[in-house]
Each structure stands twice: as C-alpha cells, then as structure tokens.
Amino acid sequence: MRPGAGIALGALGVLAFSMSLPTTRVAVHELDPWFVAFGRAVGAALLAGAYLRLTGAPWPRRRQWRRLSVVALGVVVGFPLFTSLALTTQTSAHGAVVVTVLPAMTATFAVLRAGERPPALFWLASAAGLALVLAFLATGGAMRGALSPADLFLLAAVVLCGLGYAEGGVLARELGGARTICWALLLSLPVTAPVTAVAAIAHRPQAGVAAWSAFGYLTVVSMFLGFFAWYAGLARGGIASVGQIQLAQPVLTLLWSALLLGEAVTAGAVVAAGAVLACVVLIQRTRGAATPHPSPARVVRG
User: Fold this and answer.
1) Mean pLDDT across the stretch 137-161?
2) Helix orientation angle between 3-17 and 226-237, rounded to the nearest 10 degrees
C-alpha cells in the first residue's frame, strides 16, 4: 500500500469524474442517449485495445474475468446508460445531489466484498443517507411528491457504479488500475458495439461542436483515463481511505453545472448534499471499526 500516491491518484480520478454529469447533459441535448452511453464505451474500448497491445499486458485469469464482468456491468454499461437516460430530462445539478450517496454505496459494497463485519452505526448511517436522497427527490416541486423515471435512473446508476468501483478497486490490486478498466471495456465490446450501431442507425448522430466535444470528453477522460487514476488510487491507498475523496465530487459537479451550463443550484440541493455528506463521513469513520477478511492480493502498478 502507498497511501500518499493513492490519495493523489484518487483525487485526479474524482476531478475527471466530476465533469461527467455536465458533459453528459451537453451531449444528450443533441445526441441519442443510447448512442452517448454505449458509443463512448466503444471509443474507449478502441483506446484500451491499443494500450493493452502496446504494453504487452497478459490475459486475465478465469477468476479475474468473472470480476471484470462485474466492473463492466457497473461502470462501462450501468452508470453511463442510466445517467444518459436521466439527463435527457433532468439537470446535472439535480443529478449531483443523487450522486452524493455514491461514496456510501461504494463503502457498502467494499464492506460486503471484503467480508467485513461493520457495527450497526454503519448501516444506520447508510440508510439515513439514502433516505435523505429519496426525500429530496420525492419532495422536489417538479416531481409532485413522487419519484420520476429520471430519478429512478439516477438511483440505479449510483448503485451499479458503487458496485463497479468497489469490485474494480479490489481487482486493480492484481491487474493494476489501467488494465482493470481496459479489460472491462474490451469485455463489454460485444454488447456496446451492436447497441451503438443500432442507435446510430435509428437516430443518425448529428450535433454541433459542443455536443461532440462533450462526447469526446466522456470517451477519453470519463470512460478511459479517469479510471487509470481512480482504480490505481483505490489499489494503492485502499478503498476505505481513497473512497473518502469522492466526498468532493458532488460539490465539484454542482460547481461545473453552474459555471458551464448556467444551471440553478437551489438552496435545497445544497442542504440535501450537505446532509448526505455528513452521513457519508460517518459511514467512512465507522468502516474503520470493521474487521476485514484477510486478502493476499498483490498490488500492481498502473
């Protein structure tokens, strides 16, 4: 473990991911959301194939392929798809509030994945954070007391992303951060490529410079380079400590939403985000009291 390097790499990953919702919002304004979600994965898979070939990376073992399928489900397919669908009708500032619960979700899956036995306070704080997000969504004026389809998409995205983050963080100790996301992208290609082709045929991708620039950012940074830093940070610094850096992501996303998109950040959104962050901090502290199951995984650079 190299905590200092892990924190630095994790911070770079969070900075990269904090732009994902605003750029997705820009892209789906002119491009089909299915094309945005799966097309960025196809483009990133091409980059991943080139990287693996240039570095001469060995093929993963059978056990690692099973874990890679979980990573692919969470961060290659699940999160991009559900956020793209949600942001066709919802603002990225609103989505940032929902994403506030992502560190708690990541910590929960990390606990389950590592076989730890956390105290009751961990589960109480997790439930409180989720309840606060649900209350924010259900009491929004535009929703009239009920969850909208966009909010359900966002919640599904957070659950799948937390799973993909935790599983990828563990696997990156064996494969390295770069190879973990690269193999997950290539594993997803038989799904992402056909869906991208169908989406392009159904809705011919025509957009302006802003939309294509946003799509490019999602492909190169959010879907590829950002995970190099993020998974490497989780592997080197530990999921528990590096995961805390995600606390800054919703705040940065709200900032980008206001500066780049001119979206209004309401007082209710700020209060809700702050309350959930308090629950997440409590969750991170209680994880230290958990008893982890020993893991002999070897840390790999990258």
Assistant:
1) 74
2) 150
pLDDT band at 5 (very low <50, low <70, confident <90, very high): confident
* Cβ neighbours of residue 26 closer than 8 Å, sequence gap 6 or more: 210, 211, 213, 214, 260, 261
Of the candidates 170, 137, 162, the one whose C-alpha atom is nearest the C-alpha of residue 79 is 162
Question: Please, are residues 297 and 170 in contact by the beta-carbon 8 Å criterion?
Answer: yes
Q: Is the pLDDT of residue 33 over 80?
A: yes
Highest-pLDDT range among 18-22, 63-67, 87-91, 193-197 = 193-197
Q: Would you place residue 102 in the very low, low, confident or very high pLDDT band (cuts 50, 70, 90)?
A: confident
**Residues in contact with 167: Cβ distance below 8 Å, sequence separation at least 6, in sequence order:** 67, 70, 71, 74, 109, 113
Q: What is the dihedral of CA 198, 200, 202, 207, to 10 degrees?
A: 160
Structure tokens at 178: 């770069």
CA–chain centroid gap for 207, Å, is 26
Nearest to 20 by CA among 292, 230, 167: 230
